[in-house]
Amino acid sequence: MHSSPSERSAAHAGKRDIRKAKEGGTHPGGPRMIRKLKSGEYRLYSRKKNPKTGKRRNLGTFASREAAEKHERAVQYFKRH
What we know:
Blueprint: H1 5-23, E1 34-36, E2 42-49, E3 56-62, H2 65-80
Antiparallel strand pairs: 1-2, 2-3
């Protein structure tokens, strides 16, 4: 038996939601890897995990979120130029 188009789209929508959760959010460029620390500072982590350790690389700790976002943009620019 065939399922109706609405049933198929609902099944696919659930898969997309799971994929988004695994990716760490719905940010267009992938997961945002800025996390707020208990000290109130913000830390920028790499998007990819290190295969050996399974952890993300620390790309810097910043006093403000704006500073961390500025550094993230610099990192992304450097990767492509």
